[in-house]
Amino acid sequence: MSVAAVLLALSAPLAASDPPPPAWRGVWSCTIGSLPVRACLARVGDAYSLGSYYYLSKLRTISLDQQGTSKVWLEG
């Protein structure tokens, strides 16, 4: 058996046991009022999420934080 096959076999159970990523994770396009924005959201560990968004007309990022099990995102 090749080294690649062994590594693949060992990694398969680990990948299957990892929890799925949150549904909100990713890059999103939406509007705030009538202004188009783009948001990028990610989970960091079990207790912290971060992200940012920007208005397409300004291209200046605004940071976002979410701590613990809170469903509220706070601007940084």
Written account of the structure:
- By secondary structure, the protein is an alpha+beta fold.
- It has one helix at 3-17, and strands spanning 26-32, 35-44, 48-55, 62-67, 74-75.
- Strand 3 (48-55) and strand 4 form a beta hairpin.
- It is elongated.
- The N and C termini lie far apart (52 Å).
Reconstruct the topology from this structure.
Blueprint lengths: L2 H15 L8 E7 L2 E10 L3 E8 L6 E6 L6 E2 L1
Antiparallel strand pairs: 1-2, 2-3, 3-4, 4-5
How would you sum up the global shape?
Answer: elongated
- Indicate the percent of residues in helices: 10-25%
Task: Say how many strands there are.
Answer: 5
Q: Could you say which structural class the secondary elements and strand pairing correspond to?
A: alpha+beta
- Main sheet attributes: strand count, strand direction, barrel closure: 5 strands, antiparallel
Rg (CA only): 18 Å
What is the count of helical runs?
1
Order of helices and strands: HEEEEE
Distance between the termini: 52 Å
Q: Whole-number average pLDDT? A: 79
Unreliable segments (pLDDT under 50, ≥5 consecutive)? 1-12
Tell me the strand percentage band.
35-45%
Strand order of the largest sheet: 1-2-3-4-5
Give structural attributes.
76 residues, alpha+beta, 43% strand, elongated, disordered N terminus
Question: What can be said about this structure in brief?
Answer:
With 76 residues, the chain is α+β, with helices and mostly antiparallel strands. 20% of the residues lie in helices and 43% in strands.
